[in-house]
Amino acid sequence: MASVSVKNLVKKFGKVVAVDHVSFSVNDGEFVVLLGPSGCGKTTTLRLIAGLEYPDEGEIWIGDRLVNDLPPKDRDVAMVFQNYALYPHMTVYDNLAFPLKVRKVPRDEIDRKVREVAKLLQIEELLDRKPAQLSGGQQQRVALGRALVREPKVFLMDEPLSNLDAKLRIYMRAELKRLQRELGITTIYVTHDQAEAMTMADKIVVLKDGRIQQIGRPEELYNKPANVFVAGFIGAPPMNFMDASVKEEGGRLVLDTGIFRIELPDYMAEALRKAGPPSEVIVGVRPEHITVDGDGVEVEVFVTEPLGGETIIDFKHGDKILKIKYPGLFKAKPGDKIRVKFDVDNIHVFDKKTGKTIV
Ligand SMILES: Nc1ncnc2c1ncn2[C@@H]1O[C@H](COP(=O)(O)OP(=O)(O)OP(=O)(O)O)[C@@H](O)[C@H]1O
Ligand SMILES: [Mg+2]
């Protein structure tokens, strides 16, 4: 097993800075997810660690070795790609055995390892089949198995579940996580899917435009996002945002969104005062932190989305639509008036200029 750390990694492709001074570390046995939108540099970061790209700047450490100049095959990492390609003319058995054959591992040892991995992944009964005779999930497991037989120190996975259907993807998330725990393999996993990151990761590294936005445990990113980007990226439906002006009213700080008037509790007001306070901010509130309440402010229902166990209520806030996650069934027609209230202790306030969290 091994830890991994990257320090100030930079990778440019012509004028594009794909990875911009990225630093993070992965402890031995840890499951770290690189999360961010398309083009933010996730795959490039993984390829740098695997040795498939050479960094313009920075250091890559695996265990206590600086591996910048080490070829991929000597790094003891296994990478599973989004478009894992199994060899179509080979059986599952031969697909699994292939990486070991290439390394001239003795035949009986290959046989032992292939069967061990097949058992672990529950694909023993598929060993004689060809890839075309497997379901997507089974193919996925063979691809994982092929990486596992090598017993790498580090597992690098680039959106390995993205071409599975929704149900299988959710099942494989749990499977993969269980397997990773069981084997204790240090894993770096790339995805643009926040739910996948939240459910699988010990630690998440959020990237945007090649730069790290925040590193933290899933609940840290959810409860204490560092900026508007992270706040809006984590959580579904996403956090609601409103522009607000900051007003001083009789010794209290009040945020005025034009429709809502939010009297800040003392600890929040204090944090805002320390920051200036700015005259314009962005207020963020998650759909689960808005409630339908007779004492609230009257708003107009735009549409309701019943999901069975809960209802997403969309309502109008000026020319914007905000969302409420309502526990249970909520019946309303577009245009109906309802009264809603924010859970003030769970609002987030961001600096409008920098996007950084104030409180
Ligand atoms: N070989 C390359 N040549 C030129 N530009 C590249 C190359 N590889 C990546 N890029 C650019 O670098 C940036 C980061 O790409 P990367 O593939 O790392 O993003 P990603 O986060 O994996 O995105 P996705 O979620 O779409 O897979 C993008 O702007 C991309 O166009
Ligand atoms: Mg990618």
SSE layout and pairings?
Layout: E1 4-13, E2 16-26, E3 31-35, H1 42-50, E4 57-62, E5 65-66, E6 77-80, H2 92-102, H3 107-120, H4 136-148, E7 154-158, H5 166-183, E8 186-191, H6 194-200, E9 203-208, E10 211-216, H7 218-223, H8 228-233, E11 240-249, E12 252-256, E13 261-263, H9 266-274, E14 280-285, E15 290-306, E16 310-317, E17 320-327, E18 337-342, E19 348-351
Parallel strand pairs: 3-8, 3-9, 6-7, 7-8
Antiparallel strand pairs: 1-2, 1-4, 4-5, 9-10, 11-12, 11-14, 12-13, 14-19, 15-16, 15-18, 16-17
Q: In short, what is this structure?
A:
The chain has 359 residues and is an alpha+beta fold.
- Counting structural domains, the number is 2
CATH architecture of the largest domain: 3-Layer(aba) Sandwich
Helix content: 25-40%
Please, how many helices? 9
Structural class by sheet pairing and helices: alpha+beta
Q: What's the story with the biggest beta sheet?
A: 6 strands, mixed
Query: What value does the Rg take, in angstroms?
Result: 25 Å
**CATH fold-level label of the largest domain:** Rossmann fold
Report the order of strands and helices.
EEEHEEEHHHEHEHEEHHEEEHEEEEEE
Task: Tell me the distance between the termini.
Answer: 39 Å
Broad shape: elongated
**Low-pLDDT regions:** none
